[in-house]
Every structure is written in structure tokens, then in C-alpha cells.
Here is the input.
Amino acid sequence: MQRKFDPIMSSATMPTTTQLTTLRAPLQRAKVGMASLIFMESAFFAAFLVTYLYYIGKSPNGPQPIDCLELGPVLVNSVCLIASSFTVMLAVKSLARGSISGFRAWMLVTVLLGLEFLVGTGIEWRSLMIDKGLTIQSNAFGTNYYALVGFHAFHVTLGLLMLMGTLVLSLFGCINPRRDHVRVDILTWYWHFVDVVWIFVFMLVYVIGRVPQGGAL
Amino acid sequence: MRTHLIQKFFALVIAASVLCFLALAAPKTVMATAVDVVPVNESSRAPLEICNTSVPPISGAGVTSIFEPNSPPAREIRNLSYLVFGICIAIFVVVQGFLVVAIVRGVKAARAAARDPVLAAREPVQVYGSVPIEVAWTVVPVIIVFVLTMVTIRTIRDIDTKQPPAGALEIGVIGHQWWWEFRYQAADGSTIVTANELHVPVGRAVALRLNSADVIHSFWVPRLAGKMDLIPGHTNMMWFVAEKPGLYLGQCAEYCGAQHAHMLLRVNADETPAFDQWLAAQAAPAIENPAVAHGRAVFSQYACLNCHAITGTSDGLFGPNLTHLASRATIGSGSIPLTRANLRQWIDDPNSLKPACNMPSLKLNSTELDAVTDYLMTLQ
Amino acid sequence: MNTSIAANEGAHAGGEGPLSFWESAMRWTLSVDHKKLGIMYICAGMVFFLIGGLEAALMRLQLARANAGIIDPETFNQLFTMHGTTMVFLVGMPVLLGFGNFLIPLMVGARDMAFPRLNAFGFWLFIFGGLLLYFSYIGSEGLYGAPGAPDVGWFAYAPLTSRTFSRGNSTDYWILGIMVSGFGSMTTAINFIATVLCMRCPGMKLMRMPMIAWMMLVVAALVLVAVPVLTAAQVMLLLDRSLGAHFFDPQTQGSAVLWQHLFWFFGHPEVYILVLPAFGFVSEILPVFSRKAIFGYSLMVAATVGIGFIALGVWAHHMFVVGMGPVLDSFFAASTFLISVPTGIKIFNWLGTMWGGRLRFATPMLFVTGFVAMFIIGGLTGIMLATVPMDWQLSDSYFVVGHFHYVLFGGTVFGIFAAIFYWFPKATGRMLNEHLGKWCFWLLFIGFTMTFMPMHISGILGMPRRIYTYEADRGFEIWNLISSIGVPVQMAGVLCFLWNVVKSLRNGAIAGDDPWDAWTLEWSTSSPPPEWNFDRIPTCTSARPLWDKKHPEDPDAHYE
Ligand code: HEA
Ligand code: HEA
Ligand code: CUA
Ligand SMILES: [Cu+2]
Here is the structure.
């Protein structure tokens, strides 16, 4: 038969699971969970990256990457995104030092840099669609370009929402440096991950993939 | 009591399985009885005349067993299969044998314990493992795996689907939902197109260039060669040599939509003179018989000509080429014997014979139907 | 977790007595307790098993005779698609993950999973995904008019799935249903990993974990690598279908073969996802009923991890007939053969465990023994299929259907039944009836053999799979008839099981904490376990903590 829970015995005589794990390693579960999530997301991106790689050079007609991809704006975006990785690091450092205002400031910078990236991507897409006539339906390049870059941008958005949530929480005083800096640190792993993925995406789309298409089938 | 039953049952199952495998590996005699269980032509339940073929049965036609090869690639695969079956049966007998012995001993031990309370109070000796034994049963499978890999690679190289033997007759095969298009190169360089029934010369290598017009199909005539997929936008090759004249059956082996089941294959292997004759006949334009001019008019009046090619009359590409329809034994990709009644019903309502097929009913009235049917029946 | 205990208990702190139907329904629905979720996973999975089995029975009805006209081709195609999809995604995955949910915390001595809320989220995603898939029967009209279930086969090869060849929305339902339940599997996998790595009780080192925990860990890792790739491929397909992208459209240089690579990169690990937990059940049950420790624990662990790794590099053995060329064919044949080494190690270690043991053939042990015997057959036919030239003949024939039912039914499903019979007492406090259990096993076993053994033969005789009817003159008929006759026998077995569950829940024998005299931690708590699992977090001195407790004179700890 089902026993009844005895809170007194339970909490008085022995540590609860949470306490146990806390004793062993603080927030280990969260770390493992986030690492697993990142592992899983890597598999997602790997599928899209491999597909992109496979289709490089296989669009005989329609707008070609060499004709429509401009390096200038995307470099600015990339710098912003990469920089945001450093600023978020600084934010966590401030938090660890106990400086909540430093945390807020760096977090704000991070969020702004992330937003710049998204807006920059939006502007790039707009020009691609309207000026260059490249849509997801144009050819294999268009299909893969929008899918890969869009999927990445989607993840940037997710990461950004998380960061903004943290920022808002800190504004309402819900973030306690001593209690929460490891938590926030774990959260930022995701942002670093999104950055690293961008490096791969950038290499593939703007470096390796900017070749004449069609001929080399 | 009950445990006794278990032993017996497992022994029985093992014996039965071994027999099953042996039966499969044994060619001809055993297989033949298996095939004879169902008489050729037995199908009175089928709607209309499907499969109640009026074509005289050709000996061995019904057999599609992979253990009855009549062509080098198929034979090579069969030989490899004997070897691999052999290895697997050996493994099976040994491992399953150990299992049975373990069960017998374990049950005995349990019975002994049930009789003896002192014994029952003690657990059996605990063995946690043994390095030499564990190494042994890691290494032995590694060796078997090595052997299997080697023989497999050798056979892959031997058959080499991409490299047909020199002097092979090349035929283009295009898969359609749910019929086959075959393209031969005539001596003068022109292309001869036919459908559903492939003719090949006996004793000469035939190379198939496989392509698809829509979805993925697979060319499988078990007695000639292994299967190979027909993939849109991707050309595959395969080859075989039909060693004996006769009809070899097969069918599409990759799921390709509603009528995947009725995308049958018929390969007629003819002696070279007969084959040349057939090819010449196929190269000829369609017979123009004034007696069926009305039928021909109906054919070109309706949408038939959009989908079907008849040299001199139409050049549709969506459906099978009908130029020499009457020279074939079947319609509907080998699923329906070509008789006048069947053909008439087909044109009246293809879906009644091959549900969901891609030919619409054009709702001809019965005189038109008769005329068109008569016309098509003259297209030898 | 703590909050959940507090919440649930708080709600009922005062009142005693039985809950009303709605109250208990609410308790189950809102629960984040790993045991409740596990049980719900298993029950939902078994419901889908009945549905999937019914679909199979309809197919077998049609295939019993040549040229039968009971079921029209489109319906038949929907049946095998839904049968395969259901059995793989809505039966195999959830039931096995459900057992993982129920067992992992109990076996590693934890109070709950690492992320209980995420766990509940995953379960409801699975339910929603399953409903979405089945909603296609009524909701998929689209432009085409007639609604219908997906009919593209469980691996949905391009370009049959493109808008051109699959009109209406049925394929979209297939994509979305699987994708949603896939998200559920992934969250569960994350949970498993975090639980196994972080929540073990004091003293339970990795190499002291129950085998199931190891298997579930490897399964979770496989889920995290494989399922996202399927999801990515499905996203691409969805883009093709709804936005006119060209991933799998051969008309515009899209590749039909790419889909196959992506799918099978998921699909092959998936079949090991479906069998590794069952291996885990065997590795737990077999020792207990042989009264011996598992033979070669560390090699077993190594083999499990080995299977996990090799399983990621064999996917193209499903594609030997697409014309990959001799080099790739040879590579994938070799890697596929290689997987029989760690799998063989498992089989041999189980035999080593039985060897010299004192065997007690209670129902769980019957199923486990049946598993070992049948899995060997399925594995060996797999080896035949991995022999590339043989696969050129046998691929997409009924031989393949025979192969995978031997591993999936003889393996996974037997494992599931063994596990249900074994852990039912723990979950409910009551034993299942042994007599009915034996009937269930033998009926299933005989029906299974009748149904699936002849499929090898019809495959060898040249019968392709996924055909709604076949010609009368090929010698297929007798084997198909036997196959079909096996189905009612299996049905009787399943009915025996259902009746057993109903009966035993009401008046089965009271189980007690440890009815099987077993050795892992879940048997040290009450049956059913309290919401918080253990009054005291147990400690662990060896791989068999309860053995050490029961045999203080000769504990395992001495042999580590
Ligand atoms: C539980 C699921 C499961 C498992 C465990 C396996 C295990 C294996 N499978 Fe199977 N397989 C499927 C489920 C599974 N399969 C499914 C669902 C399909 C079809 C999908 C579809 O098309 O719909 C399929 C299809 C499939 C194919 C493709 C066939 C085709 O479509 O053309 C191949 C080809 O290589 C294959 C091979 C193998 C091999 C080599 C193993 C090995 O892991 C087996 C290893 C085990 C043993 C070998 C036995 C025990 C070992 C010993 C006793 C040691 C000694 C033995 C040796 C040294 C050989 N399987
Ligand atoms: C775990 C996986 C699993 C399981 C358990 C099964 C179980 C069964 N399968 Fe399975 N099958 C697959 C996985 C599985 N299958 C897959 C992946 C495919 C490939 C699909 C594809 O090609 O796309 C396939 C394909 C497949 C085919 C090939 C279809 C074709 O290619 O045309 C056939 C044909 O006979 C078949 C038959 C059966 C049968 C008879 C059972 C039986 O064992 C079922 C037994 C169960 C029952 C009979 C249910 C009992 C029901 C009752 C007792 C009724 C009670 C009802 C209520 C109370 C509502 N299956
Ligand atoms: Cu064409 Cu199946
Ligand atoms: Cu596989």
C-alpha cells in the first residue's frame, strides 16, 4: 500500500535529492541538461550544414551566390554576433563579482548586438528578395540559403529571448549574484553555441559556398 | 512438467527453423513443390479475367525464387547466399544449442533445489565473468565478420553492376507510376519505344540504364539479377544474361504509390533470330488497317493521343506506347491479360481493373469503345 | 521533485479515503511524478499497440489470399504506413522511454528525474503528436477532397512525398505528428542523461549502475544524435511542401537520395533505440531468474557503448539498392557486420549468465528466453541482408519484413512484455496472474512464429513488400495464408494479456516489496513506491545492492 509522506522524517533525518546533488556539484544537473541540449542542437545544424554542403554548386539557373551575396553587411553582423559572445561573458563575470549593474549593462549591450544581427539579417534578406530576386523557390541555393540562415536566425531569436528574459528578471531584482551567477552562466552557453554555429554557417555560405554554380555538377 | 514442455518446445522450434532454412537453401526439388502448391492460373475469385490468363502458361513462368537463377549475377548471388546461409545456420545451431543446454541444466538445478531445502537456501555459485572466455567470444565473431566482409566485397566486385560485360545490349528503362517504358537503340540510331514487356536476346549480356519519370521504382527480376532502384534525376546501371529462353517474371520492388502492387515486369528472353525479328517489328510504324479507321479516328478525337504514342497517329508520352500493343500479352503493366474483353473494359474504365491508376475513364459510348478496341487489337 | 511532492501531498493532506474519478484523473494529468508519467507512457503506448496491431490484422486479412479484394490499394497503403509509424514512434519509443522514466530514478536511487516538469512536457508532446498523426484520418482533406491517413510508408521516400505525388495534407500530418512526438523523445533523452549522470545515490559509481541505466544512457545519446536529423529532414520536407523549396525535388537538381541518407541516419540508430532498452530488460530479468550475477558486466557495458557508436555508421545498409557504388557498399557492409560483434557479446553474456544458474520459468523469464532465441534469428537474417549482393535480391522483399519483425516483435515486444510482467508488481502492488501469463506467452510465441517465419520464405520466392495484393501463380499464397492465420493466435495472446491486467489490478495477489527476490534498488522500496520513492536515499556498495544486503556473508562488493 502507498505510504504517506512524512515530511519531518524526510527533511530532518536526511538531505533531499536537491540538497544531495547540490552537495556533490552545484547545478550539475543543469549543466548536463544544457550540454545535452546543445549536443542535440548540433545534430540539427549538422543536418542542415551537410545538406548545404551537398548542394553547393548544384544550381544551374537562377540567382547565384557569387552574384547576390555581399560580404560587407554580413561581416558587420558577424562581428556584432561574435562580440556579443564576449559581452555576455563580461556580463556573467560582473555577476560573479556581485555587480548587478555591470551585469545589466553588459547584458543590454549583448541584447543590442544580438538584435543588430537579426535586423541586419532582415535587411540582407529584404535586399536579396527584392533586388536580387532570390527566394526560397528560386533554386537549390535559395532553398538552402534561406533554410540554413533562417534556421540559425531562429535560434538567435530563441537565445535572445532567453537573454532578454534574464535581463528583465534582473531589472526586477530577481537575480541574486551569489545565488544565480552559475545559473546565468549555464544559460549563456546557449548563446555561445549559437555564435559558434554562425561561424560554421558563415564559412559555408559566404566563403566556401560563394563559388560559381551550375558548371561543376 | 511445464518446464519439460519448454525444453521440448524450444528444441522443436529450433529443429523447425533449421529445416526451414535448409529447405530454402535446397534448390529445385523442394522449391518446386512449394511452387506447385498453388496451381498456375488459379484465381477464380479475382474480378473479371485478371490473371485467368488466356496466354498458355510458359513453363517456370510463375517462379520468381532467388534460388532459381538463370543469369550470372543471380547465380553468383545464389552461391554467396549458400555460403552465408551456411555460416548463419552454423552460428544459429551452436548458439541456440548452448541456450537449450543452459535451459536444460538450469531447470535440472532448479528441480534439485526444489527437492532439497538445504540446497534451496543457498544461491547458485556466483560467476562474475571470465576474461579468457569473454575474449574468446569477442574474437571468434570478429573472425567470422572478417570472412563475411571479404566474400561480400568479392561478390560486389564480381558482379559490378556499373560495368556490364563488353558488347552488352543497352536498353533504357524508365519507371512510371505504374508502368515501365523500355527504349532500344535501332541499328539506324533511331529509338524504339515499347512498354511493360521487355524482350531480350538469350545468351547476350543486357545492360539496363535505369531512370525514373516520377518517383523511385525498383527493377527486380529475381532469376536474372538483384534489384536496382530507378531514381528520378539519377541514372543507375544493372546487367544480366538470360541463359535460357522463356518468360522471366518480376515486379517493381520500391514502394511507388497506389498501384505499386501492379507494376509487374515480364522479361521475354528470345533466341537471337526471334529477338531480332521482334525488334524489327517494333521498329516498324503502326499497322494501318482501313477496316478500323473509325477506331483510329476515335482514338485521335479523344484525349488518348495526349497521353499515348502510336507512330503515325499520336505522340503522347504520359502513358505506355501503344504502337504495337497487340504484340503484348498483357496490359496494365503485366497485371491483366490482353484479351478483347479486358481491353474494352480497360478503355471504358481503367479503374475497375487497376484501381487508382493514372489513366482516366474517357466515358466513350459503346460503339466508340468497340471501335477503339478493335483498332488497338490490330496494332500487332 | 520536492515541489511536486509538496503540491500533491498538500492537496490531500487532510482527506483520507478513495479519490473520486475526477480527482484521480486530475492527479494523473497534472502529475510530474516520473512513475505516473512512466505508467501513462506505457499505457498510451499499449493502446497504440492495439491500434497498430489492428491495422496489421487488416493487412493480413487482405493478404491471406492472392488477388483478394477486401481492401482497396489506397487504404492498404495507409494501413502499412500507419502501422509502421505507429509501432515505431507511438509504441516502441514511448513504451521503452516510459519504462526508462519509471525505472531510472528507482534504480539509481533518486527521488525523481532531473527535470520533472520537462518530463511531463515530453509526455504530453508525445500524446499530442500521436493524436495529430491519427487526426489525419479526418483532417487531411486539403485540395484533394478525400481525407485519408498518410500513405507514403514509414520512411516516406522522396519524391513520393512531394506535393506533386502526395496531394492533400496527409503527409503534412505525418511530418508534424512525428516531429512533435520527436520533440517529446528528445526532452526525455535530455532528462535521462541528466538523471543518470547526476542523480545516482551515494556509492553508485557508473560501473555499479544497473544495466538498464547504461542502456538508457546510450539510448538517450542516440536519440539526441539521431532524432534531430529526422526533424531537420522533416523541416526540409515541410518547406518543400508548403513554401515550394527544392530540397528533394529532382526536377530542380534536388536529390531523392539525400532524403534517404538523412532518414536512415536517423532510422538505423532508431532501431537500436528500439532494442537497447529491451536488452536492458533482459539484462535485469535474466540474472534474477537464473539466480546469478550478470556475466561479464564491464564487457556488457563496453558492448552497449560500442553498439551505440557503430550504430551511427551503418545507416546506408538500407540503401544498397540505390546504386551507391562498390566502395560505399563495401564500407557499409563491413560496418554493419561489425555490429554483430558487440551484439553477439551480449547474447553470449546472457548465455553465460544462464549457464550454471538455477532457472525459474516465471512469465518474465519465458519472455526473456523467447527474446534471446528469437533475436538470434532476427540478427542472423540481418547479417544476410547486410551481405550486399544478397540484399540486392532481398531488399524490399518480405524477407526484410520477416527480419525486422523478428527483431522488433521477437525482440522489442517480447522485451516489453517481459518487463511488464516483471515490474507490474512494483508499479501496482499486485502480481499478474502466472497462469494467464503463460498462456499469453505461448500464444504470442506460436502466433509470432506462424506469422513471421513464412515471410522469409515468401520473400525468397520473390514477393516484394508493401503490395496490397499479389499474383496467384508465384507460390506466395500458402505462406501468406499461414502468416495470416498466425494473427488471430497473436490476438488471443494479446487478449489474454489484457484480461490478465484487468483481473490482476482488481484482485491479483498482493506483491510485497520484493516478489522476485531481486537485487536492484527499486525492490527495496514499497510496491507501489511512495511518491518520493525512498524514505531514505539508499546507498550502494556494488552493482547488486540488495544482494549485498541479503548476503552479508558474501557480498558482491568483495569482488569488485
Ligand atoms: C530492433 C530493431 C532492429 C535490430 C536490432 C536490427 C538489427 C540488425 N539489422 Fe535490421 N532492420 C530493422 C530493425 C532492426 N534491425 C528494421 C525495422 C528494418 C527495415 C526498415 C524498413 O525498411 O522498413 C531493418 C532492415 C535491415 C536492413 C536493410 C534491408 C533492406 O531494406 O534492404 C539490413 C541490411 O543490412 C539490416 C541489418 C541488420 C543487422 C546486421 C542487424 C544486427 O544488429 C544484428 C546483430 C545480431 C546478430 C548477428 C545475432 C547475434 C549475434 C551472434 C550470435 C554473434 C555471432 C554472429 C556473427 C559473427 C555473425 N536490417
Ligand atoms: C514494433 C514494431 C512492430 C510490431 C510489434 C509489428 C507487429 C505486426 N506487424 Fe508489422 N511492421 C512494422 C513494425 C511492427 N509490426 C514496421 C516498421 C513495418 C513497415 C511499415 C512500412 O512498410 O512502412 C511493418 C510492416 C508490416 C507488414 C508489411 C506490410 C507491407 O509491406 O505491405 C505486415 C504484413 O503482414 C505486418 C504485420 C504485422 C503483424 C501481423 C503484427 C502483429 O504482431 C500485431 C499483433 C497485435 C495485434 C493483433 C493487436 C491485438 C489486438 C487486439 C487483441 C484487438 C483488441 C482491440 C481493442 C480492444 C480495440 N507489419
Ligand atoms: Cu514502381 Cu513500385
Ligand atoms: Cu538498419
Notes: The two ends of chain C are 33 Å apart (CA to CA). Chain C touches chain A through 53 residues (CB under 8 Å). Residues 23 and 29 of chain C are 10 Å apart (CA to CA). Residues 31-559 of chain C form a domain with the Cytochrome C Oxidase; Chain A fold (CATH 1.20.210.10).
